[in-house]
Amino acid sequence: MHRTMNLLRRYGVMYALLIPGMLYFAVFKYVPMVYIAAAFKNYNVLQGLWESPWVGWQNFQLFFDGVYVKQIIGNTILISFYKLIFSFPAPIILALMLNAVTSTGFKRTIQTLSYLPHFLSWVIIYGLLVAFLAPGTGLVNQLLTSFHMDRMSFLTESSLIRTIIVTTDIWQSIGWGAIIYLAALTGIDPSLYEAATMDGANRSRQLWHITLPGIRNVIILMLVLRLSAILDVGFDQIFIMLNPLNQEKADVIETWVYRVGLQEGRIGLATAVGLFKSVIGFVLVLGANRVAKKFDGQIW
Amino acid sequence: MRHYNAGDRIAQSINYVLLTLLAASCILPFLYVISVSLTPISEYIKKDGLVLIPTHTTLTAYREIMQGGRLLDAYQVTLFRVVVGTVLNLIFTVITALPLSRKSLPGRSGLLLFIVFTMLFNGGIIPSYLLVKNIGLLNSEWSLIIPGLINAFYLMIVKSFFEQLPEAIDEAARMDGAGEISILVRIVLPLSVPIIATIGLFYAVWHWNSYFDALLYINTPENQPVQLFLRQILLAAVAISGDAAEAANAVNPISVQMASVAVTTLPILVVYPFIQKHFTRGVLLGSVKG
């Protein structure tokens, strides 16, 4: 009792400050976890969540037996994989290119401009795509016409949608992503380069033996972070670019969950698929953290 | 110093060219968007849309999107969201991070676990939607603010920053009889201006750019933010072009789309030069291992 009073006197203000924040996490993060119950129910709007009948694993079964399961899981993994092999190295390459620039003014200008897309919403970026790629009025199609070539409906062409998703992803994130690698590059001891030059190492050898090893840890840490979020392919980006014509190649778990749950009203089924994604994601993060610990760069 | 041979010089030139192209790709699209938005339909048709610099300009497209006041309504929602949202984000984040930065606080690791777990596992879109619906926030502007009150990741960054502040100052203030609140206001906050400004900018940009939560939670047109307004114009361009009889002085639908992109991007382009430096620092502060 005495101890409790002492603690309260010493930390009372601190605990009081914590109340709103903890309340926020409890209500807005943990209550939705309770609502996962909908995944095991035949959700009925009129009956509400708790009155709706339990159906066990039926919603999961429905999904895994359905015709979409292959398509949306396949799209999710494929788009994620493409982003991994193309978008992940892009900022590293940019950082190395910027690092080779000797003029500070030039370097700073390029950096400032390359950050810009990071601050644009995906809706705005889609607006730019419309300006360039729209079938009737887009600049690219006008150019194709003026060279007497056929117009292309880029934004509804399912064979191009993944390329567009990955390209815009690189464009949006390359400059911003390079910051952390540039910071790591400035940490490399310049005397290493001088010594290498003395020993007759040319620039490509210096890159291979000094620069890349110098930023190896940052690369691994970023890679691990990336792998742990492999199912998060970027809802905001894909949703705005999705239309019935390219859906076959670009519909991913989250866009599917949104459509089936909130537009078709099949809450139980959509919650089950969302839960499936969350559980896989959770396992991946835990696994990634274990790997990261080995490289002394754990996430938490 | 490093010596350059011919191969190095060629490589260096290619490097400069590629970097210039990248930078151009980041800025030129906006010049094109602005040009198209200002081009009258007659010139647009005559030049097959290749209007990099318009010879005549018109504000018809801008007048068109101003009509009916929908854009102004949307801007009001976005402004409310950015200003009120960011202020509340900062207050909640700071008052939660401060106690958590006290390593001596009993129960600290349990509380941290409580928060970190939400970063690793979440209910998903539908449970979040059900929650917002059940607490009656659907169609309210508050549904864009309250569910995102604290970003757990930013909270951890602020917490790490507080941990780095020298404890001696804190102790001295306590000796002088200052209470926790006055330590927070008079000592911790002034020392934390860089991190608070950075996180505030992150929150503000997030508020400015999000459209998905508004898509989920808001159905009434007058409560939709700018990003949703733009989305609708982009997806429904044909509908705006209007009656065929008016074709002579009709509004160019692509100009209307581009005018909408321009008015949505403009605020970012205007403030960008001023905030850009802070963001760089923010990323670096954020990457300090917590």
UniProtKB/TrEMBL annotation, chain A:
Keywords, alphabetical: Cell membrane, Membrane, Transmembrane, Transmembrane helix, Transport
Membrane-spanning ranges: 12-40, 72-98, 119-140, 160-186, 207-231, 267-288
Subcellular location: Cell membrane
Record-level GO BP terms: transmembrane transport
Protein name: ABC transporter permease subunit
A Gene Ontology term for the protein's cellular component: plasma membrane
Chief site of localization: membrane
Family matches, as CDD domains: TM_PBP2
One Pfam family per UniProt: BPD_transp_1
Membership in a protein family: Belongs to the binding-protein-dependent transport system permease family.
Residues of the ABC transmembrane type-1 domain: 73-288
Membrane topology: Multi-pass membrane protein
InterPro entries, sorted: MetI-like, MetI-like_sf, UgpAE/MalFG_permease
Organism: Paenibacillus roseopurpureus
TrEMBL record, chain B:
Entry's transmembrane regions: 16-34, 79-98, 110-132, 144-162, 183-206, 254-275
GO biological process assignments: transmembrane transport
CDD domains in the cross-refs: TM_PBP2
Membrane-topology descriptor: Multi-pass membrane protein
UniProt entry keywords in alphabetical sequence: Cell membrane, Membrane, Transmembrane, Transmembrane helix, Transport
InterPro entries on file: MetI-like, MetI-like_sf
Keyword Disulfide bond on entry: no
Compartmental location: Cell membrane
Principal subcellular localization: membrane
GO cellular component, as recorded: plasma membrane
Pfam family, one: BPD_transp_1
Domain ABC transmembrane type-1: 75-275
Coiled coil: none
PROSITE patterns registered for this protein in UniProt: ABC_TM1, PROKAR_LIPOPROTEIN
Family according to the record: Belongs to the binding-protein-dependent transport system permease family.
Protein's name in the database: Carbohydrate ABC transporter permease
